[in-house]
Amino acid sequence: MVILMELAPDTLEWRDAYKLLVGSILPRPIAFVSTIDEDGIANAAPFSFFTAICAEPMLVCFSPMRRGRDGAKKDTLVNIEATKQFVINIVSEKMAKQMNNCAAELAPEIDEINLTGLTKEPGTMVKAPRIKESLVHLECELYQVLHFGDQPGAGSLIIGKVLNINIADDLYQNGKIDTKKLQPIGRMAGNLYTNPLGKTFEIIRPETGG
């Protein structure tokens, strides 16, 4: 017999509620989002609250949470609101550590792409850069953004319209993407990640100060 525990979200501290979300909704695909600010400084950050919405129009969405320390907007959200453009770079296992290093909370004037040794490429239809090491890029313009509070633990829903898709040639076969060659990873709870073949591995996330 399974004994069920009942928990009311509004009685939980937000960090505890977050742990329940990420411990039950998994594996989660990762949107490695690259943006650029109004001064031309690039930013890259991973978000695992990410999914597709529909194909016509082609819409995708991800949710950046507010900073845990003070409820401030993250640089990704600030940049997208200012420029209305971004790129979602799909994360393959070979670039997982560099992606993870971009999760650290850094000053807005620091370019995470350069700092972590990744390579910037110009976007085809957006000003935001693509990350060369990624094998699939979704170049997006902002379609809609919704805000759900401004306190720590709150978040926003960013909906992007895909303007252009860049795919590595050897991945694209008969109109489909070869998942085995792409080797995308998904986020599990804590510091665990997984790949489509069921392999689970751990990467320690850097301190963010949040």
Which structural traits does this protein have?
210 residues; globular; Pnp Oxidase, Chain A; 5 helices; 16% helix; alpha+beta
Description:
The protein is α+β, with helices and mostly antiparallel strands and 210 residues long. It has one domain: Pnp Oxidase, Chain A (Roll). 16% of the residues lie in helices and 35% in strands. The longest helix has 11 residues, at 14-24. The chain starts with 13 loop residues before the first helix and ends in an 8-residue tail after the last strand. The model has no long low-confidence stretch (mean pLDDT 93).
Query: What proportion of the residues is helical, as a percent range?
Result: 10-25%
> Which regions have little confidence, pLDDT < 50, spanning 5+ residues?
none
Number of domains: 1
| CATH H-level superfamily title | Electron Transport, Fmn-binding Protein, Chain A
What is the average of the pLDDT values?
Answer: 93
Order of helices and strands: HEEEEEHEHHEEEEEEHEEE
> From the coordinates shown, what is the CATH architecture?
Roll
Q: Briefly note the structural class of the backbone.
A: alpha+beta
Shape: globular
Largest sheet: 7 strands, antiparallel
Q: N-to-C terminal Cα separation, in Å?
A: 40 Å
| Amount of beta strand | 25-35%
Number of helices: 5
Main sheet: strand order = 3-2-6-9-10-5-4
Specify the oligomeric state.
Answer: single chain
